UniProtKB/TrEMBL annotation:
<keyword id="KW-0547">Nucleotide-binding</keyword>
<protein>
    <submittedName>
        <fullName>ABC-2 type transport system ATP-binding protein</fullName>
    </submittedName>
</protein>
<keyword id="KW-0813">Transport</keyword>
<dbReference type="GO" id="GO:0005524">
    <property type="term" value="F:ATP binding"/>
</dbReference>
<dbReference type="InterPro" id="IPR003593">
    <property type="entry name" value="AAA+_ATPase"/>
</dbReference>
<dbReference type="GO" id="GO:0016887">
    <property type="term" value="F:ATP hydrolysis activity"/>
</dbReference>
<dbReference type="InterPro" id="IPR050763">
    <property type="entry name" value="ABC_transporter_ATP-binding"/>
</dbReference>
<dbReference type="Pfam" id="PF00005">
    <property type="entry name" value="ABC_tran"/>
</dbReference>
<dbReference type="InterPro" id="IPR027417">
    <property type="entry name" value="P-loop_NTPase"/>
</dbReference>
<dbReference type="InterPro" id="IPR003439">
    <property type="entry name" value="ABC_transporter-like_ATP-bd"/>
</dbReference>
<feature type="domain" description="ABC transporter">
    <location>
        <begin position="1"/>
        <end position="233"/>
    </location>
</feature>
<keyword id="KW-0067">ATP-binding</keyword>
Length: 253
């Protein structure tokens, strides 16, 4: 069983945003979804988590048809968008209690988990302050804690390190790696390619809503013929290649 299986996913606005996208991500995998601005990454993830209806295609999360049974699928997923979404009038502790209640997490479990998350994300000393006075980085940390409070099997993050200082960014990366080592699945988008190079197991590169290439960094290096290149160099080669050239096995669009 896959953690996430996407088949033929498509969405158009004034122009096609995602075009016949196929993805299969295994349980316990740290997957990086990379692409230039406007490539379709966020649109894809919003369809996966049920915030946007696809025009075509299917989404299965741990075997559950997310389009036919969205509530069951959403119970297994947490979504952290690039803009933190929290209730400004609540304190971080109140926010976590609220989110835990929405997911039906027992108070005896939610309390210790909230305390641990607030300590790790350096929010414990601010637990009684309203979030409305927080910086963007502090709001991002509170939103991440909210995403983790129900211990999701699949964690999807869109640019999660934006606005974080170096120390907290390092702690966030450590939390994500720990989740994967414990059997969780993480999908990450980021424009900080050095972060993706250090963290992820496998990479998917999309452009114009299509999958250009997918594999480990070693496999992507082999594909572009640059054995010792950084992920940044490989990525730039892939997105600069003529349509269809990045993957010789893929039929031209």
């Amino acid at each position: 069983m896959t953690a996430l299986e996407v088949r033929g996913l498509a969405k158009a606005f004034s122009r096609p945003a995602v075009q016949g996208l196929d993805l299969a991500i295994a349980p316990g995998e740290f997957y990086g979804l990379l692409g230039p601005n406007g490539a379709g990454k966020t649109t894809t993830l919003r369809m996966v988590v049920g915030l946007l209806a696809p025009d075509a295609g299917s989404v299965r999360i741990f075997g559950i048809d997310a389009l036919a049974d969205p509530i069951a699928a959403k119970r297994l997923v947490a979504w952290l968008p690039d803009e933190p979404l929290i209730y400004d009038k609540l304190t971080p502790l109140e926010f976590l209690e609220f989110v835990a209640g929405l997911w039906g997490v027992p108070a005896a479990v939610a309390g210790p988990r909230a305390e641990e998350l607030l300590h790790r994300l350096d929010l414990w000393d601010h637990r009684a302050e309203r979030c409305e006075g927080f910086s963007r980085g502090m709001k991002q940390k509170a939103a991440l804690a909210g995403a983790l409070i129900h211990d999701p099997r699949l964690l999807i993050l869109d640019e999660p390190l934006t606005g974080l200082d170096a120390a907290i960014a390092r702690e966030v990366k450590a939390i994500l790696v720990e989740r994967v080592r414990a059997g969780g699945t993480v999908i990450l988008t980021t424009h900080i390619l050095e972060v993706a190079e250090r963290l992820v197991d496998r990479i998917g590169v999309i452009q114009h809503g299509r999958l250009l290439a997918e594999g480990t960094l070693t496999e992507l290096r082999e594909r572009v013929g640059r054995a010792d290149s950084t992920l940044e160099e490989v990525f730039l080669d892939l997105v600069a290649a003529p349509a269809g050239a990045a993957d010789p096995q893929r039929e031209p669009a």
